[in-house]
Hints:
Strand content of chain A: 15-25%
Radius of gyration of chain A: 24 Å
CATH architecture of the largest domain in chain A: 3-Layer(aba) Sandwich
Strand order of the largest sheet of chain A: 3-2-4-5-7-6
Strand content of chain B: 35-45%
Bound molecules: thiamine diphosphate, magnesium ion
Shape of chain B: elongated
Number of helices of chain B: 4
Oligomer: heterodimer
Largest sheet of chain A: 6 strands, parallel
Largest sheet of chain B: 5 strands, antiparallel
CATH class of the largest domain in chain A: Alpha Beta
Amino acid sequence: MKLTGAEIFVESLIKEKVEIMFGIPGGVLLPTFDVLYGAPIKFILTRHEQGAAHMADGYARATGKVGVCIATSGPGATNLTTGLATANMDSVPVVAFTGQVATHLVGNDAFQEADTTGVTRSITKYNYLVKDVKELACTIKEAFHIARTGRPGPVLIDFPVDVQRASCEFVYHKEVEIRSYKPKYEGHPQQIKKAIDLIKQSERAVIYAGGGVIISGASGELREMAKTTQIPVTLTLMGMGAFPQDSELFLGMLGMHGTYFANHAIQNSDLIIAIGARFDDRITARLDAFAPQAKIIHIDIDPTSISKNVKVDIPIVGDAKNVMREMNKLLNKLGSKNIEKRKKWQKRISQWKKDNPLTYKKDDKLRPQYVVEKIYEVTKGKAIITTEVGQNQMWAQQFYKYNYPRHFITSGGLGTMGYGFPAAIGAKLGKPEKIVFDIAGDGSIQMNIQEMATAVNNKVGVKIAILNNGYLGMVRQWQQLFYKKRYSATDLTANPDFVKIAEAYGALGIRVSEKGEVEGALKKAISVDGPVILDFLVEREENVFPMVPAGARLDEVIRGLA
Amino acid sequence: MRHTISILVENKPGVLARISSLFSARGFNIDSLAVGETEQHDVSRMTIIVKGDEKILEQVMKQLNKLIDIIKVNDFVEQPHLERDLVLIKVNAGKGKRSEVLEIVDIFRAKIVDVASNSVIVEMTGDEEKILALVNMLKPFGIKEMVRTGIVAMGRG
Ligand SMILES: Cc1ncc(C[n+]2csc(CCOP(=O)(O)OP(=O)(O)O)c2C)c(N)n1
Ligand SMILES: [Mg+2]
């Protein structure tokens, strides 16, 4: 039977088991939206295409499935780009569709035309312009395959309006075969053996794990590896939740705002086992002084991540779960001889921990860290937390304890302000049984506040906790520390009344200015079904510590005052 | 160091843009680029000549391998291989000078492919060194125009 391109689009999504998609229609998407009307795919109309892309991304990170979004040609497509770049940096599987002007007009500066494949080439894993309806089904199949396999990422399909109208036989293949794309999942046994030998010899080893562990579903293997070897674990921002934070072996996050003890452990280690992490500049600090005595084992599915910044001794290209499973088999046979050697190292780390804990000033003022701690307590650590970007993001990482993968959702690589709220909506739609909090800043929340209409309209009960300091706080902190307190363009005292904003959208708004009100307000917010904005008027000039200044060595930590 | 990179790619739109942006994003200038179909019509071969920092180039090679449309990448550095480039040179060759030009063309086993009253077009195939030598010899006569196809390379054996 012949189907139109628009029908093939919808049928293909059904074959891919897509349950939900996010977006906004437009002129060149009319044929497609006509078929979507009444289709068994839930459509979430957003108020901005950036919101749609972040929702698809938040949905994907919370569920592990592919997120899908759609936007019209020209401005719709350019509005998607921040969302695509965000997903690309954090390896999130998203498939984005954009309408395009009719094929005979492409390249003619037609109304609402943009060179979408050109604009998005460097911020997607791959992209397509479909010029023939006969290629459509196959292209969609490939796009989903590429998005979810290997190192995942966003894939865009540009979909001209005449292709939506044209028709052909619909065949959806079961398998895809792309001769030039064959991700490597199994680690090389010889490399694995060499890695085990290094682990055997090491006395001061540290496991440094990142988002790759969460993507490959390897947190069980990571726990096992740490337990059998008694090697302590530090995580990147993207790795939060991959290892239980209440474990004795947990060092917290490393890097610029990492813990004193994680950074010192790395700098004094004789072996780093890097798993699904990529040694970016926020992690290594001054590169030429990074972990001077350490040998490095690096497990990653993406060979371009290996030896990019830091020279690696034993590279292992493969999926974190497979490689760790193989390593654990061999490590289990080693017995306890090694563990004895590590006791001394653990003692040293415990001392660092005791002397330099992660903390903040505990007085009767309303401090942002306290708010985050209370969110942890009230949700018993079971909520999905998304964040905006800035100080709020770092406090959300430091003072909530993440014990489960896919529960901390943040824009790590791109650092996109405005990410957290739409991502929270996507996460909540994917995991409706979960409490979902966006820990927000007063600056960031204003970048996608319009999605409150989407949340109210679809009864998505996400809770926004604004750590309202009346500043672009993270930038202000740098100005305070390194630019003589010249607060250039960081004051936000002209903020709107966030409670009234919530109310204007038909949501609940709660203002909190006293420490004693925090718990009650959080419980109230959780008890209502719909979306809630909690406006916490926190200490304005609180800073994020510890901190490694730009250009300093990883253990040159400013501890701050506690 | 100079690298001759040979890349087998899917013959598809956008592929050249993906490859060239990997180089340009890292500040590499491509000295020579040649593209053509292979024995399979849906596969093309690109030969790229670049010079640059070894460490960055290593990263570029990895990124090339990662590109979805790329089937195979090979760097010919330290591998026995042939390089060929075709050059057309329009050189001044008025009455008095023509025999001198012809002599040089002969020595290089090049060919005259067009003759006008004041100039000739010389065609030659060779590697970089040979082409530069010919150009140097013809320069004194006055080169009016020169085009090259770009270097192609093939492993020996
Ligand atoms: C889209 C975007 N623009 C600019 C920045 C630069 N930036 C990083 S943090 C920050 C301040 C964020 O302010 P706020 O949301 O109030 O968070 P706070 O640091 O105060 O918690 C800015 C402007 C960014 N990360 N993203
Ligand atoms: Mg702020």
